[in-house]
Amino acid sequence: MYTHKNKRKKMCIFCKIVKKELPSSVVLENDKFLAFHDINPKAPVHILAIPKAHVDSFDEVSSETMAGMTEFIQEVVKVVKIQKSGYRVITNIGENGAQEVPHLHFHILGGARLKWGHFSDADPKGHF
After folding, report:
1. CA 94, 13, 88, 75: dihedral to nearest 10 degrees?
2. Is 103 an active-site residue?
3. Residue of 103, 105, 107, 118 marked catalytic
């Protein structure tokens, strides 16, 4: 168990991966960040990059952590050789943003020309 914002919670799945309690297919790791292949890929290359320290979401991340994450993601795309062909970096925040794991994570997608069709179920009426 870890304490976060004075609440006792079960350790999230990504914290368990960081602690090596659950297996992952590691792409790159350093003392602050971890990148591993997504178990449900949406592209030929689909990697998750996370801070090792638990942060619930992008809304709570420090600028210092984001600076480090930016450099880390730039290293990851070089390791998997997609920096020249192009890639997409996405983070989901909250329920409407489809965040499934309450631990900040970035999806790195590449390896093919990516389509933008995941908004097909959204109703834009009244939002503009």
Report:
1. 130
2. no
3. 105
